[in-house]
Amino acid sequence: MEPMAASCPDWLATHLQQAGGAVPFSTFMDLALNEPEHGYYGAGRARIGTQGDFVTSPSLGGDFAALLAPQLQGWLTELSTSDPDQRLAIVEIGPGEGHLAQDLISQLRGADPALLARIDMVLVEANPGMRQRQQDLLKHVDSLSVRWCSLEELQRSPVRGVLIAHELLDALPVERLIWIDGALQQEWVEVDPNGSLRSTHRPLPDALQDEINRVSRNRGIQLPPPDAEEGWTTEWNSALPDWFAAVTGAVDAGVLLVIDYALEAQRYYTARRSEGTLMAVCAQQAGLSPLGQPGAQDLTAHLCIELVDDAAESNGWLVGDQTKQGEALLALGLAERLHALQQLPGQRLSEALQRREAMLRLVDPAGLGAFRWLTYLRGLPAGGFSLAAAPGSGECPRD
Ligand SMILES: C[S@@+](CC[C@H](N)C(=O)[O-])C[C@H]1O[C@@H](n2cnc3c(N)ncnc32)[C@H](O)[C@@H]1O
To answer: What is the pLDDT of residues 369-392, one digit of tens each?
Structure first.
C-alpha cells in the first residue's frame, strides 16, 4: 500500500503521542470528527448545505420534511395509546445544523392538535459545537417542546415514539481493512519522522477478527471476496453494536428510521470496490485524502445493510421495511408536490425553480434517491409501521 502523506496538526500529534505513536484508523476518524476542540463536528466546524461542505436531504429545503412528516405522523398515531397522558417522542439523533428538526416542527404544527399536544421533540447530539448551532437555530420554536439530551439520559426515562438517524451512522468511526499477503490487516495511522501523517497496517486484533467472523457467518458475507487483489481495502463498522445497545436502552417502544448511504454486502464487499467506500469531503468536493486536513473536512463511510441489521437484531430490534429514498418520497407524494409548484404565482418563479431542483435531487437515482430508508421496530409487533413505499415484503429492490 502506498503511504499517504499529510501534515499532522499539533493537537492530533499530541493525541497520537499519548496513544504510543499510532492509532487504528477508527480512532483517527473519531478524533478528526469528534475531538471536542478541533474535530470537524466536535468544534462545530461542519457546514451542511449548498453553501457548505456537502448537502444532505434536509439541507436542500423544507420539502423533504414536508414529505416525511405524514409518514412520522402515521407511525405516531399507531403508537398512541388511549391514555391521554401518554407522551410520544420524536427523537432525532445527530441533527447536524438542525434543519430537519426545524422543518418537521413547522410541518407538525398542522397536525391533529390532540396528537401535537402529546409530542416531545428530543435532539441527541454528541458534539457540543453542533449542539450550540442547533440551539441557535431552534431557539424561537414554540409549538412543540424541544429538548437536548444524551442517550444515557434517555435510558433513565425511555421513550415511546419515532427515532430518526439521518446521515448519522455514516459518521460513526469505521475500521479500514486491507488485504495484504493473503490476510486481512487493520489500517493504522501514525506520524512519520517528517511530521506527516501516514497510514500503515497491523494484523487484525483477535476481537475484531472474531466479530468479522461471527457477522460474516451469520449474514453470509464473504470477506474478502474471492477475487480480491493485493491491497484491496474496505470498511468495517465496529461501532454499530454499541450504538444500537445505547439506543435500545433509550426506547420502550418505537420505530427507528435510518436514512443513509447503504449497500447490500454483495455490493459492498465486492472485488470491484477495491478502495472501499470511505470519502473525505470539503467545500462540495469529494475524493480528498482521508488523512488530509484532519478536523477541517468530513469523513464518511457507507453502511453495509447486513451489518446494520445484525447490530439491530442482536439488540432485540425487528427489521422492518427497507426501501430507497426515491421510492419512499414518490410514495409520499413528491410528484404531486412538484406538480403543485405550477400553482405558485409568477413573482415566486425563482422559489419554484429552486424547490423543483431540490426535489429532483432528493429522488435522483444516481444521488440522494439511492439512499436507503431502513426501519427497525422495538417493543412493537411485526407487520405494522410500514413504509409508504414498501411493497409489503420488507425486501429492498435491487439495482
Ligand atoms: C453527517 S452529519 C448529519 C446531520 C444531519 N442529520 C443531516 O443529515 O443534515 C452527522 C451529525 O451527527 C452528529 N454525531 C456524530 N456522532 C454522533 C453520535 N454518536 N451521537 C449523536 N450525534 C452524533 C454530528 O455531530 C452531526 O451533527
So the answer is: 999 999 999 999 888 899 985 444
